[in-house]
Design brief:
The complex is a heterodimer of chains A (about 425) and B (about 600).
Chain A (H helix, E strand, L loop, with lengths): L18 H4 L9 H30 L8 H20 L4 H19 L6 E4 L2 E6 L4 E2 L1 H23 L5 H21 L3 H18 L3 H21 L1 H11 L10 H13 L24 H34 L3 H25 L18 H16 L11 H12 L10
Chain B lengths: L3 H15 L5 H29 L1 H12 E6 L6 E5 L2 E16 L7 H11 L4 H8 L7 E7 L1 H7 L9 E10 L7 H4 L1 E2 L5 E2 L1 H5 L1 H5 L3 E6 L15 E3 L6 E7 H18 L3 E7 L6 E7 L14 H5 L2 H4 L9 H10 L8 E4 L2 E4 L2 E4 L7 E4 H6 L3 H11 L6 H14 L28 H8 L8 H12 L10 E5 L5 E3 L12 H16 L2 H4 L7 E12 L6 E15 L3 E10 L7 H4 L1 H14 L7
Parallel strand pairs in B: 2-10
Antiparallel strand pairs in B: 1-8, 2-3, 3-4, 3-5, 6-7, 8-9, 10-17, 11-12, 11-21, 13-16, 14-15, 17-18, 19-20, 20-21
The chains are: A mainly alpha (about 425), B alpha+beta (about 600).
Chain lengths: ~425, ~600
Amino acid sequence: MRPRRQAGSMVGSQRTPNSQDEKLGRRHRPDYFLVMAMVLLLSLGLVVIYSVSPAISAQLTGDVDQNHFMYRQVLFLLLGFATFIVTSMLPLQIWKQAARYIIGFAILSFILLFIPALSLSHGGATRWVDIGFMTYQPAEVLKFGLIFYLAAKLAHRISQGKLDTSETIKWFMTVLGLVTLEIVIIQRDLGTMIPIVAIMFSMLYLSGLSWRRFSRIMGVLIMGAILSIIVAPHRMARVFTFLNPGDDLSGGGYHINQALIAVGSGGIFGNGLGRSVQAYGYLPEAANDSIFAIMAEKFGFVGMTIVFLIYGFLMFRILDIVARAPNMYLRLVAGGVLSWIAVQAFVNVGAMLGVMPLTGVTLPLLSFGGTSLIFTLAAMGVVFNISRYTTLGYLDTERKDAREDSIRRRGLGRPRYSA
Amino acid sequence: MYSPRYNQQRRRVDRKSTGNTPSVFLRLSHLRLLIMVVGVVLIGRLFHLQIIRHNHYSGLAKAEHQKKFTLPATRGSLYFRDGENAVPAVLNDTVYTLYVDPTIVTDKQVVADLITDSIDISRPAVLKQLNRKNTAYAVLTKRLTKNQVDKLFKHKEKLKGVGVTPVQQRVYPEGALAGQILGFVNADGVGQYGVEGYLNDKLSGKEGTLEAVTDVHGIPLSLDDSRTVAVQPENGKNYILTIDRNVQSIAETALRRGIRRSQATKGSVVVLDPNTGAIRAMANMPTYNPAQYHKVTDNAYERFQNRVVSNPYEPGSVIKVLTMGAGLDTGSVSLNSTYYNSGSMTVGDAEITNVNKTVVGRRSMTEVLKFSLNTGVTHILGQMGGGSINRTARERLHKYFVDRYRLGRLTGVEQVGESAGTIAGTNTGAGDNIRYANMAFGQGMNVTMLQVAAGFSAMLNGGNYYTPFLVEGEMSDNEQVLSKPAKPAKKGVVKPSTSKQIMLMMRQSFEETPTVSRVVRPGYNVAGKSGTSETIDPRTGKYTTDRVIGSYLGYGGDQRLKYVIMVRIDDSKIHAFGSESAAPIFGEISNQLIDYYNVKSDR
C-alpha cells in the first residue's frame, strides 16, 4: 500500500483545487465483482466472435477460417487487459495532468484524419487513423480524455463554489461546440457524437448543476440535434428509415431489417451457438456493430435476458462506485465512464431492436475489438482503481449519518455496498 | 482511516459548493432509474420481437435463407451396334464457359495475358469483355475442355474475377453418322427430333431438388440438416440402337454418292433386318451434324426430319411386288399364270397404260414384274375380285396392304414425327375401282419407306410381320445389354410358299434385266424392284414429270433372308427412272452387305 495522509490532516488543505486527490481514504480491496462481470462479457464476446468467424471470413475472403477474427480479438483482449492493469495501477491523481495530453493527442489525431494516406474510411464515415501497424479512432481517445478533463474542471468549480454560474455554462458550451465542430461538422459523424454528448451531459448533471441551467442547456442541445438532422439529408433519410423500416428493404432499411430478422428468429431459446445464419453475409457487421442481433439469434430471449442482467449488474456496480467515490472528481470520472458504457450499450442494442436509428456505435465489451475495446478497458481500469478508495456509505447523505456507527463497526478492510 | 470528520467536512464542502442545488444522490438515483427504465424497455422490446413476433421473423428468415436448387440428372447415352458389340453413339461431356466479372478484375493486362497464353482467343476480344461496364458476367468463350480449364487456372491467385461454368454437352464419337436418327439436345437440355426427341423423358431422367439454408450469396450451408431437404436425381436411361454403325456408314456413303451421280436434291435409304424388324441403317440426305445443329440455317425443319418415317409419298412400281404377293397368296394368280397384255386396260372411265409400250401379248406374272406392267397388276387385282375389279377385289387388296403389310399405319418406330400416310378405304368415295387399280402399282396412296420395307420384309420372310424398331434395348451403365427379343407383330401375313414364289419371280425378273442387275454381284440371292413416281407440282396441283422420285426396293440373303433395302432419290436431273437413280445405290449397299453379313453364293 502506498502511503496516505491521515484523514485528519486533510482539513487544512481543502482549498487547493488538487488537494482532493490526495485526500483519498484508505486503500482497500477493489471491486472484483466489477471485474467478474467485465470478464464475463468479454469472454462471451470472444466465444460469439469465434463462432461467427467462419461465416464472416467466408464472406470476406472466400475461405472458411475459424480463426479469422479470433487471433485479432485475442490480441486486442491481451492489449486491453494490459491497459486495464496499467490504468488500474496508475495513481488516480495523474489523470488530471494526463487529461490535457490525451486530449492533445486526440486533437492531433483528428488533424491526421485530414491526411488521406493516414485515414481510413468505412461505412461512409472517416473515423480511423491508420498508422501502419494499427488503426484507431481519435474519437475514442477524445472520449477517454474528455472524462478526466470535464471531471477535473467541474470538481474544481465545485470546490470554488462557482459551479452554478453562467461561467460554467459558457465553458461547457464552448467545449461542446468545439467537439461538435470536429465530430459532427468536420467528420460528419453524428453517431460518434451521441456517446460523447451523453458523457458530457451526465457528468454535468451529476455535478449538481441547478435544474434551471441544466434544462436550459438541454434545450439548446435538443434544438441543435434536431437542426443537425434537418440540415443533413442522409440523417433525415435514416430517421425516416427508422420510422418506417419496412419501406426500403434492400436499401437503407436493409441493415435494420436483417437485424430484426436475426433477433426475431432467435425465439425463446435461440438457434444455438453455431447456428446463426444471419452471420453468413445477411446481416452487415456481424462481429462488430451487429453482434447483439447475432447473439439474440443464437441465444434467444432467455440467453439475452441473462446478457442484460450481466450488463445491468456491471452498470449498477459502477453506479455504486460513483455513489461511494471518495471525492467529487473521482465520482465524476466514474460517472463519465458509466454513461459512456451505458449509452453505447443502449444506443447499440436499441438500434438492433429497432427502437433507435442506426448510428454505427459498437456494443462495449462484446463487439469485436479495436480501439474501442482498449479504451473501454482503460476506462474500466480507472474505475476499478477508484473502487479501491470508495467510502463505506453514500457520501454526503443524511441517510448515511444515521447508520454510520453500525457500518463503521463492520470493518474497514473491504468495501461494503448496500443493496 | 475512515473518519466521520472527513465526511462532515465533505458534506460541508458539498453544501458550500452546490448551494441549493438538488442532492447529488437524488441525481444518482435518477441515473439508476433511467438505466432501469431503458433496460426494461429494451427487454420488453426483445420479448416482443423474440416471443410475440417470433413466427413472423422466423418466416422472414426462412424465406430469406432457404433456397431451392435443382440437382441435374445425367442424360442417358445412346449406343450403336458394331456387329455384336455396342459402341457409343452419344455421350455426355462437361465443357466450360469462361466468364469474367469486370467489376472484380483489377489488373486487366495480367488477366488478359494469362487467358491468351493458355486459350486460343484473341487479346482484343478478351480486353473488350474485361472493359465492359455494368455487368458482372461477361462471357469470354464457350466449350472449353477440362484440360484447358486446368491449364488456365494453374495461376488461380492471379485470376480473381475469372470463372468457369460447367455445361453438360452431348458428344458424338461417330461424328455426323446417323445424325438425323439420333436427333440433338437443344440449349435447354431438351431432346429434339430423332431418338433424342422420342425418348427425351426416359433419356433425361428425373431432376433432383435440394432445399437448403444458404449464405447471402446462395451457397448452401452445412450447418442445419433439419432444414435441408434433398431429393436425389434419377439419371436417364442408356439405350442401344439397332443401327449398325458399319451398315449405316455403308448406306450413307452409297446414298451420298448416288445423289451426286444423279444430281438429285434429296435421297433416303433404309436397311432392315427382315427377320426381326431391326433397322440396321436409316439415312436421309441432306443431313446435319447433331453436334452443330445450331449451325443449320437453311431449311432446318426439313433437314431435321427423318424422311424415311415422316414423309409419306407415292412409291410407284415398287408396290407391284406387294400386289403380286397378295395375288399369289390369295390364289388369284399363280407362278405360272399368264394374262394378255394389250398395252392398255380400261377401269371405269380411266385407261391404264404401261410405260413400256412394246411388251404386248400374253405375258407371265414374272414378266409383269420384269417389265413393270401396270396392266399386269391391274389384271391381278381383277383376278382377286374373281375376274373383275369390284368390291371384293378392293377389300382383298386393302386387307393385304393395310392389315397385313401394314401400309398406311404408324409403325411406332422410335422417331419423332412419324407419319402414317394415307390409303383410301374401300367404302369411301375416293376408294373406287380406279383408285384401287392405281394403288396396285403404287399410285394414289401415300406410304412411308419404312412401311413399305417392313411390309416387304413380312412378305419375304415367310409371312411374319415384325414392327420395325430402332431401340434394341436398355443398357446398364456397365454396357450390359438388356436386349428385348424380336416377336412378330403379326403372323401369317402371307403363306411361306408365297414368300418362296415371290422371291423366285423377283430373282428371275431381276436377273433378266441386266440394266439393273449388273449393279449387283452375280451369284447371290439378291433382287429388287424399281419404282418411279411423278410428283404433284405444288404450283399447278398436277402430276409433273419434272420432279420424279425414283425408288428401289430389294432384298439380299442366302437360305436365310439377310437384309431388305429401300432407296429413294428425289428430283434427279439426269435420271428419269428409279432403275437408273436408286438401283445403283441398292447395288452398292447390297454388294457390301454380302461381305458384311457373309452371305453365301448359291452358285
